[in-house]
Specification:
Helix 2 crosses helix 4 and helix 6 packs antiparallel against helix 7. About 40% of the residues lie in helices and about 20% in strands.
Amino acid sequence: MKHPTTLRVWLTIALVALAALGITVNVFTGEDGSTTITVKVKGPSGPTTVTAPEPAVEALEEDRHHDGAANERPEGIPLEKLIEGEAQREAFAERDQLPLTTPDAAPQTPGCNSRFIRTNYSSRGRVKPRLIVLHITVSPDRGQSGVNANTAWFANPAARVSSHYIVSGDGHCNYVVREVDNAWTQAAYNRLSLSIEITATQSQGYLLRSGGHAKVSRLVAGMAKRWGIPIRRGAVNNSNCTVTRSGIVDHVQLGKCGGNHSDINPYRGQIPKIIKTAAKVRTSSANDARKIAKWCRSLRITRAQVRDGRTTPQRRSRARSLKTLLINRGAPCV
């Protein structure tokens, strides 16, 4: 336990540093002596407030399971092998040509709160992601409160760690680093990856409940579609930190190249189930897209018939039904 005076000194220093980066932190002590930390981070429509109880944030500050997540030259890998991995990333950069302007790219993900942090991330260097990496936070699953606590920690410059998404066991979700940017989660594989942190400890007994499983599966399906990543188990070569098979991996698979973290180890058996569900979501979305395209064509034909006077009550009723279907799906042809 830190001495209260020392804690106040360091907290003051941290508040000044965060303010300089456009992050506002408020500490409120209630009548019952409980303390709440509120952090304002940039959202799609301006600053957004996330609140987490102080013990949750303090627990994350004491955690060191994610040390080295930002270091793209992790220890334990010979320099010549690291250079081989860097050569692969440079070859990808020449081929991929990602957009140079990223601040407003992909500002929203359905089902997740956009809570973009202002530090602890960097440019991908124009490298398209090849991997979707699943992690756990090694912090208790506390629903939205736990998700917010991790967001607050990722927003702290001292953390030097971040993830694209944070999801709770029941499906609460914060979108923290834009997919076009480089989150600091898995060392040498950072620029090649998209990351999802699941709030869980290694001993809590479950990785995801039904709501969380559905949310993570939809996130995986969406990222796979946007970036052309196959929904399958991915593979890497940890002797030189290269990707040998694009797809979905867990943090343990990345070995020393990924920071040598074993955080998700108790739950690795659940990854195939997530991949299977994500594949179903992707197939269902593709089928929906085909249905919507067919309905749009039918609606255009029916409306043309109405305009030309070639109409019947049945055609008018058909047009109304198609319009309702398309509005309910949010289809762009309406």
